[in-house]
Structure formats: structure tokens, C-alpha cells
Amino acid sequence: MTATDSADLVSIPALLARNAREFGDKAAYREKEFGIWQSWTWSEAVEQVEALALGLLTLGAAKGDHIAIAGRNRPYLYWSMLAAQWIGAVPVPIYQDAVGDEISYVLDHCNARFIVAGDQEQVDKILDIKDDLKNLERIIYLDGRGLRKYDHSFLSQFQKLQDIGRSAKDTLGPELAARQSSQNYDDTCVMLYTSGTTGRPKGVVLSNRNVIETSKNSSQFDDLGPNEEVLAYLPMAWVGDYTFSMGQALWTGFCVNCPESPETMMTDLREIGPTYYFAPPRVFENQLTNVMIRMEDASRMKQWMFHKSMAHAKTVGPALLSGLPVSFMDRVKYWLGDKFIYGPLKNTLGMSRVRVGYTAGEAIGPELFDFYRSLGINLKQLYGQTEATVYVTIQPDGEVRADTVGVPAPGVEVRIGDNGEIYYRSPGVFVEYYNNPESTASTKDKDGWVATGDAGFFEETSGHLRIIDRAKDVGKISDGRLFAPKYVENKLKFFPNILEAVVFGNGCDYCTAFINIDLNAVGNWAERNNIAYGGYQELSQHPEVLDMIQTHIEETNLSVADDPMLSGCQVHRFLVLHKELDADDGEMTRTRKVRRRIVEEKFSDLIAGLYDGSERVATTTEVTYEDGRKGSISATLEMRDAATVVAQKIAAE
Amino acid sequence: MFDQPESFVTSDGRTIGGVMMEMKNITLRFGGVVAIQDISFDIREGEIRAIIGPNGAGKSSMLNVISGFYNPQEGEVWYKGERRPSMKPFEVARQGIARTFQNIALFEGMSVLDNVMTGRLNHMKAGILSQAFWYGSAQREETENREVVERVLDFLEIQHIRKTPVSRLPYGLKKRVELARALAADPKILLLDEPMAGMNVEEKEDMSRFILDVNDEFGTTIALIEHDMSVVMDISDRVVVMDYGKKIGDGTPKDVRSNQAVIDAYLGVAHD
Predict the structure, then answer these.
(1) Is the pLDDT of residue B269 over 60?
(2) For A320-348, how does the pLDDT look when each residue is reduced to its tens digit (9 = 90+)?
(3) Residue A146, Ramachandran bin (φ over 0: left; ψ between -120 and 50: alpha; else beta)
(4) Is B91 on the interface with A (CB under 8 A)?
(5) Helices A366-374 and A300-321: crossing angle, nearest 10°?
(6) Residue A154 belongs to domain with CATH number
(7) Are residues A425 and A528 both part of a single domain?
(8) d(CA A232, CA A222)
(9) Has residue A316 been placed in a domain?
(10) Which of B159, B169, B205, B214 is most worth mutating to test chain A (most A CB atoms within 10 A of its CB)?
(11) What chain A residue is nearest to B211 in terms of C-alpha separation?
């Protein structure tokens, strides 16, 4: 059973109609609600989408309108995107945890007339900024809880709007059909705002061609079929979720499962057992941290079995997965390990059925990557961007390595510029940045080549692409050796106790680092060692915690020194930050990438302290609470020296 | 006695109905100690009614009188226009009055789900035999009650701890589970004994939001005891103030705040 391809499949609604025709009775969407998985078949989904599309027509939604969508992953919100596309409008998913002025900027920039909001929290945020938004006509909300008393002249309830749509089917049906049939391959499919590590977010316009061609190519690459199961839990505003849960799901007809709530994601993952799974390194990291924490609490016997089996898995697991020759005895031992350890562990992680798993968004630590692969999970890496409709390079089965991101994806051309920057051209290359011709021109040249802003090179032996760092972050320390902060940060972040690391040193004599501890891991460690603490801040500055972080850093220095090219990046001095870097404070993007410049500016006093040799620095930091209020925290931070390795300094000259 | 009309609409658009429960000249003694002395007040349908007062004022005793745990020596409790005879707590519960406790009283070893299911006890009618073999009406009832419970879990956003034993939960969540259990009973009147005691600011905000949402969504009448003045003033419609077993004030938060007896007894002396 595979979906049929035909020339008239030039829009998302056309794919939806085809799926209803070919897989009418197959589950298309599932969501856990009230403790039970509710499901909708493709034909039921079409009915839901149609009702909403008609409802939007009764509100006067026109072709080309922007319809924003804000909320957690729910089938209803995916249908909202589909309904918008059906009537020729453009869905604009926005990050559900964005604060008021971020949403305000996006809604204002795209002149959204309607917004579909998940719940009261989203509605409240929009009502707060409503006065600045002249074009916003109506909020359509899904979960009415707490909204009973609100002034409904500006609000519509999702299901009620669908009912209005259903009753208007006779009059508006022809209009709806006309809206669909008039769409072509180069019409806008969706607009996604990039999280923007620098500056304001930009609206990336993707056409039907971008999305459908990319979905087609990538589905073929991994042989995705209508029986795949995916768990949709990553932000809907992110291009990855759009491509996996909308593009590929519609192209192949597979089923999209939505968790009950963000907190139940791990339980839901286990219940669904996805066959096709995507997670940023952070999620894999968290899962591994949880496993390790629980192992430390397990009995001696279990610990011994776990460590013994994992050691074996590390030696042969990846080779087995890549189809390389492995001795008979090793196979037998691996089989036993699978029965007793790997199998149950995979089940606990919800990865028993994962056939293809991807990680992207950030570089993944080699140890972390190998851990999953050694369990027999086919975890691969891809490298991509919103502007490319995800795919730039991808790892084919059997050619998977932690330190590369694979070969150019099907249909993608990649070249390396003179300055080491990576450029690509593909059918997925975005149309433009919405209302921003300057940025479009500076990113995409007239032949369609797009600059990624990342520096990298192709390995001569394998032909795989290796990413060094953001092109603008790569620099030199004062003795001329290469400075690539990401490389060291990733090594540091592999330690379960370290949540985030930021390395500085461009143009300086040596490198220094900020460390964020992982409250889960360090808190558990503190509990087991009878270390009392009053909160994050106190724990982070505990002398024993600092000792522990220092050993991690020194271990990292040892491994950084191995690479002659990057040995200058060893961390000489460090401090543990008194607060977690947070997107609400602007220190990270919504996809949780560190905004280096902002961190540098905000904590300039601490960086100065790291370089002037002070032992302690007192600082006050402004923080933003989830509801937008501001406060400040002050702390005295200890700066420590870490041992470095100097033996291999030969490469410097 | 009733200077207010039968029903009226508050400034935030909620309808407050007629008198649902009335305490008439209640006096409660423990031996020689007078815990409550000649107190009268009423609770109207759909309102959030707070009982405040310093430590030892008799607030919890009052709540225990309402819930039938104590029977006052003097005075009458009127419920839905009828005088309530002296009753056992379970009989009161059957009348649609549910409560939470100051010191959490959950089944520690049971999961959240099972704890909340116990709140549905009064809605299960199947006999012991069909319960034991789980057939017929027992099966149907469990499904129906489970649905009610799941809606409550969803409402209070505690789905993620559905299967977690209560003993493993932090204090703030236990309080929420207790509220869930009371709510699962589908009560007409919900009695909350210091729902926010020992919570941090964020937990208090969440709890206040849930209390308001319960009142708004299900129209449940709520009587609560609370120490945190700002919470009481923010969420309640009317406040009874007690001191040494006596009622020293009764009215809207605004009235109470400016009542000199209340200020002296509880809030301290006002500074101008």
C-alpha cells in the first residue's frame, strides 16, 4: 500500500483529498484525551477540515490572507493549517511559548486577519496586544476553559465555527471547490518564522513546490510509507514539524499522533511506539540523562548488567546497524544483551519500533549519538534549514557517523564557498523572506544558491559534509589557533550534569566558559550525596558542584587537545551561571539555541572577570518570568581555573 | 434578614443565586471551650465565600460543622431551604457537599487516578457482587465514572501524574489531587480548608486560577478558609471574619477591609 503520485497533486488540499480517497479508513490523526487515544481517519479528517474551511469562508477569509496558529500540537491545529490552505490562505504557525511582543511582531508583520489559538493562555496573550494589531479581526479558540466570561464579539469557538461552516456548505461549497482548484504548484503553501539567532524573526515563504517536492524526495529516501507512526510534539512553528507532520504525512498518508500534554510526552511516546522519529539532540540528551539517573538508583546487580552490556553494545552495536562484519561470538553476546538490556531499555525509551530516527538542529555529541546507535536504534543525522524546507544533507543508511552530517539530500546541490561557508540549491529553496527583499537578496543569489551561514567542508575520504560552526562564530585566539566554540560546547554538553555551555575566546589569549548545570541530574546527585540546597542558584554555586564541573572540563580539555586543529579551544577558566539561559530572557532562541552575542553583552561583567583573574564576581541579572513580569537576581560567582594540556602545541606554529 | 435580592449578577458577569446554605446561631463547644459562639451567615448559590480569621478563631470548626463532622450544640443548619438534621459526614457528602483538608488526607499508596476515583463513590450503585466480577452495571459505571474523573484530571492539568502514587508527589500537586477528588464528587458546595497553605507564589496563583475556573465552569458554590489575605480578597465574593469563635465581620472584601473590628483583630492596626 503506497500512495499514488499524479500530476494534479500540486497543493496540500489535493493531497488531502487523495488520502481520503485512497486511505479513507486508515487512521490519519490521533490524540490522547481524557486518558484515551482518540483517532480520526483520513475521511473523518477531511470532513473536519472542510467544516472549518467553510467556517473561515463565512468569516470572509480571502485568498492570500495570513491565518496564524498558536498552540501545542493538536490535530485541530493541524486541521486549521489544512483549512487555511484549502481556502487559499496561508497558515502561519507561531511558537506557543512566544511572549506578547514576539507574537505581536509576527502578527503585525504578516498582517494576520485571523488567529487560531489553542487555549486561554494564547487568547490572553493575543488580547493583550490586540490594540496594536489593526488587521486582526477574530480569534478562533479551541479549548474554551476559562473563556466563558470573555467578550465574544472578537472570539469564535472552533467547533461552533465548524458547525456554522457545515450549515453553510450548500451556499459556500462551490466557492470552496473553486478556491482549491485555482491553486497551483508555485502558490504559497506556508509561512514559517525563523527563530533568528540574530535580529528579528524573518517570515520564510515556502511554496507548494518546496513542500511537496521535498516531502516526495525525502519520503523516497527513507522509504516512508502510509503505515508509519510519528509523534508530533515539536513546536508547530518549526519547519521540521511542518515537514514531518504535514508535508510527509500528507504525501505518504501516515498517521500523526499528538501527545496528551507536553508533560506526558514520554508516556505517550511509549504508548505509540513511533516508527519514524525525530528529536533534537536535547531530547535525546534528556532521555539519556534520565536513564543514567535511574541506573544510579538501581541495584548493584542491575548496574553491573547494564554497564557490561552497554560496553559490549558500544563496540559492536554501531557496526551491526551499519551492516559491517561482526564475529559470531559478538553477535551472540549482542543478542543476549538485546534480550536483557537493550530491548527493555528501548521499550522504556519508546523506541522499540523506530525504523528511522533523525536528529538535527544542533550538533550531537558523538558519545550520545553512539549510545543510541549501539542500542540498535537507526538514529541518523541531517543538516537543514527553514530556508531549505529542512533538507540540505542527510545520512544514508549504513553511512552514519557522529561527526558528519551526511551527503547532499536527493535533489540538493551543495558547494563550499571560498571562506568555507556552505551554499546549497534545491527544489526546496524558499521563495522569499516575506516583505524583506534585502534579506532575501543577501541570502539567496539569482541562480538560487542559498548561503547557510555555517562553515564546513566535505571530507575527502567519505564525501560527507562536516560542519565546524556558525561561519561568524569561528575565529582565532590571539596566538592564531582556530577558535570554534560549538565544538567544545558540544563535548561539554554530553556530560549529563551540564545542560548548556557557552565558550568564549575569540581574539583572546585563552578560552573560557559559562556552564549551566542540569538541575535534574545535579539535583539527584546532590540528594544521593546528602548535599542540601535551597534552589537552583545555591546548588549551582556549591563548592562540590564546582569541583564536579571542573573535572568535566578537564576531561573535555584532554579530548579537545587530541585534535591538533582545535587544541587551542581548551577551557582555561570557567564559572557556573546562577540562572538557566532562557528564551524568555532572550538568551536563547525558541528552538533553544544560545544567542551568543546577547549572552556576551548581558554577562559582560562575568566575562571580564574570567579574563582579569578575579576569584569572585558579584553580579545582578534581570530575569523575565513566564507571564512577562520582570525581576532580578543577584549572586556572587566563583571563577575557577581548569587544568589544560599543553603537550600538543605543535600545531600552533 | 435578606437585604440582597434573590439573585444578582456580579461585576465580572457571574450570576449569584439565592441562599443555598444557612447557618443559624451556631454554637459549638468542646467541654468548657467554646469554639464557635452564636454565629449566623449564609452561602449563596454560585458564590465564592471565604471564612477568615486569626489562628484558633474557629474557622476549621465552622467548616467541620458544615461538612457534618461536628454537630453543634446549639443552632440550625439549613440546606436548600430545609433544616438539616444532625448527620454523619457521609450523609452530608451524599447531599452534594465535598471538601478538602488542611492537612492533606489522600491515600498515599494509591495512584492519583485511584484517589480521584474514590471521589466518585457516591455515584456508584452497583452491588458488591457485580463489582467483584466486574460485569454488567459495574463495568458500565466504572467507564462512566472514569470519564468524569478523566475530565477532572484534564481540567486540573494533572494527566501526567495519572498513574503516579500520591506519596511520590510534591506538596503542591497533592493539594491539587485533593481538589480533584472533591471535584470528582460533582459537588453542589465545595469546602476548601486552606487550599493554599504552604504553597509558593506560583502554586498559589495556579490554585487561585483553578478555584475561579471551577466556580466559573461548573457553577460550583465554594466556601473556603484561607490565611493569605491577598488571595481571599482577590477571589472571594463575600467574606465572613471570625475571631475567638465570634463573627466580627461579614460582607464583600471591600467592606471587610474597611471594618475597624476586623482590622484590629486580624489585619493589625491600619496606618494612614
Answers:
(1) no
(2) 888 888 899 999 999 999 999 999 999 98
(3) left
(4) no
(5) 90
(6) 3.40.50.980
(7) no
(8) 19
(9) no
(10) B159
(11) A146
